[in-house]
Write a structure and sequence with these properties.
The chain has 298 residues and is an alpha+beta fold. The chain is built from 8 helices and 15 strands. Strands 1-2-3-13-5-15-4 form a 7-stranded mixed β-sheet, with helices on one face. β1 (4-7) and β2 (14-17) form a beta hairpin. The longest helix has 15 residues, at 224-238. The protein binds N-oxalylglycine and manganese (II) ion (MN). N-oxalylglycine binds at residues 86, 88, 111, 117, 128, 130, 142, 264, 266, 278, 280. N-oxalylglycine is lined by residues 86, 88, 111, 117, 128, 130, 142, 264, 266, 278, 280.
């Protein structure tokens, strides 16, 4: 079968048919998907009944796996999935729905803020691949915004102003926005801030984009209130409805997105006790976006 990609939003998002992700891919197919990611930023595959091993094997087509250590507040005995997976479900290690006030659930609520995955790492991630194994009937959509289109729509003076700016990112900042601040000393060390360029260019298409994320806490050389106000303005611009695609999940969907070019967030689900079993593998990026020299702890 041929790979066909149908664009779903005026700016981005492709729906892919003609691929079975449970089987090894030809190098030609991998190349078509890589090119599709550069162009569309988000690719959607339906009816992919895959195992964890198959998801890992498919992910490795696009680079090194990012392991999920240093990215959450799970204790060693609280993992439901292996470290190759980010567990963005609402489930505990025995598969039961987390209690409303559970600390892990409180931490995961940060995924409802617009962000780019792993922007709190020195080398942030390239792609995220999220597989839907079960989903509530309503709520829990994942929304995406395409940063090259967002960048293009900025006025020229703002484009000039942001060129060369360096931002500071940490999970402490994103969780702090929701009032989550009871980090242990170890967690504070693990989540020490890192620096990123605010403007990035796609290596292949050359298109510039603005690298925004809820993990941003300040801009180097700026006073924090001014930096936060500026970032909030940029966020408002970037998440206007006309820029947003909202994905309603079906069991068997696999959605992959380019974190270098997209922001995303998950929408709330009701307190119905339904399970939302979502498993994410992540492809590591190739390197830092900015020098870390001079970086201090938060
Ligand atoms: C993620 C995330 C989205 C979701 O997997 O990176 O932010 O739909 N979650 O759960
Ligand atoms: Mn995410």
């Amino acid at each position: 079968m041929n790979i066909v990609i149908k664009q779903l939003h005026k700016d981005f998002v492709g729906e892919v048919s003609g691929l079975d992700l449970s089987k090894p891919l030809s190098s030609d197919a991998v190349e078509q998907i890589e090119q599709g990611m550069d162009k569309f930023g988000v690719l959607i595959f339906h009816d992919q009944d895959i195992t964890d091993d198959q998801q890992i094997a498919y992910t490795k087509n696009f680079g090194e796996l990012e392991l999920h250590i240093g990215s959450n507040v799970l204790k060693a005995d609280e993992r439901r999935l292996r470290i190759e997976f980010a567990d963005v479900s609402n489930l505990d290690q025995s598969g039961e729905v987390l209690k409303r006030g559970d600390r892990r659930r409180m931490f995961n609520l940060g995924n409802r803020l617009w962000h780019s995955d792993s922007s709190f790492r020195v080398t942030p991630s390239k792609f995220s691949l999220l597989s839907c194994r079960s989903t509530p009937d309503t709520g829990g959509n994942t929304e995406f915004s395409f940063m090259p289109a967002v960048y293009d729509a900025l006025d020229e003076s703002t484009k000039k102003e942001i060129e060369g700016l360096i931002t500071e990112h940490s999970l402490i900042y994103s969780r702090g926005q929701l009032g989550f601040s009871d980090f242990s000393e170890d967690e504070k060390k693990m989540f020490a801030p890192v620096r990123h360029s605010l403007v990035r260019a796609n290596d292949f298409t050359g298109r510039k984009s603005i690298y925004l994320s809820a993990h941003i806490g300040t801009i180097i050389g700026w006073e924090m209130p001014e930096a936060r106000d500026f970032i909030r303005e940029m966020m408002e611009h970037a998440t206007q409805r006309s820029f947003v695609y909202s994905h309603k999940w079906r069991v068997g969907d696999l959605v992959m997105w380019d974190n270098r070019q997209c922001m995303h967030r998950v929408r709330p689900i009701g307190d119905t006790g339904e399970k939302r079993d979502m498993r994410r593998t992540t492809v590591a990026g190739l390197g830092p976006t900015a020098s870390q020299e001079g970086q201090k702890a938060a």
